[in-house]
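Dear Dr. V.,

Thank you for agreeing to look over these. As mentioned in my earlier message, I'm a first-year student in the group and I'm still getting used to reading structure tokens, so any feedback on how I've presented them would be very welcome. I ran two proteins. I've put each sequence directly above its structure. The first is here:
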Amino acid sequence: MKQTIIQTERLILRALRDSDAPIIMRLAGNPNISKTTRNIPFPYEDGMAESWIESSRTMANTGKSLTYAIELEEDNILIGSIGLIEINKSQAELGYWVGEQYWSNGYCTEATKALIKFAFESLALNKVKAEYLTSNIASGKVMKKSGMSYIGTIKKECRVGEIDSVDSYEISNI
């Protein structure tokens, strides 16, 4: 599936590039990113960013997921990533992370709203789901501000061997 560039007021959502690997390594390698996400490991080791970029490209080619770099439009600085995984004919799951120095600026909410709109208008999906670690209150605020509704809380394995409380949200295109 070809990844369309999505532009917002302050952001550009674009396909990941091989040249993004060092920045991803630096941003995702922050232990506070791992603590706030379900899947980003710590330590974030050499080669992980390159492998992730390649697997994201492969998954996009199969149509099963779309992963975007979140870039500041003003100066083309990569600040994080957002994507849709497990895309099928009617729904997908949303996931995102933003580098710690970019927190509390509304970037994640802006990117999330844009990707949800893209999912409904361009991919013709009926539903977008998302989950976040209950301890990551900011991520829950992003989902609420993006129009998503709370579904429930469950215990779930996050990262390798860790069990955490996870809140589930969704939004429907009705």
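The second protein is here, in the same arrangement:
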Amino acid sequence: MSYTYRLHPLAAEDLSKGYDWYEDKQVGLGERFLKAVRNKINEIAIHPKIYSSRERKEFREVKVEFFPFLIVYKVFKRKQQVYISTIHNTSKHPRKKYRK
């Protein structure tokens, strides 16, 4: 059974900025970025506990394929919900990847 997911408003902004940056670099690359992120989010929704916790135990993270981004999320088992905290560009400081 799939979990539902919810994006933090700033995670949606991260996604939009990533799309814009890649689309500016090459037409169509922004779409590939969005597709890679969506595929990973769908995978998380189906198997939310497949990826491990890293520094903070309440957060899990997974790398987006082909792009230097991490999806950082929490799993709420009782609600059957995944809360996506951030879509973090790995070139930024690692402490900025955690939002509550």
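From my reading of the second output: The chain has a mean pLDDT of 90. Strands lie at 4-7, 60-63, 69-76, 81-89. Does that match how you would interpret it?

Kind regards,
E.
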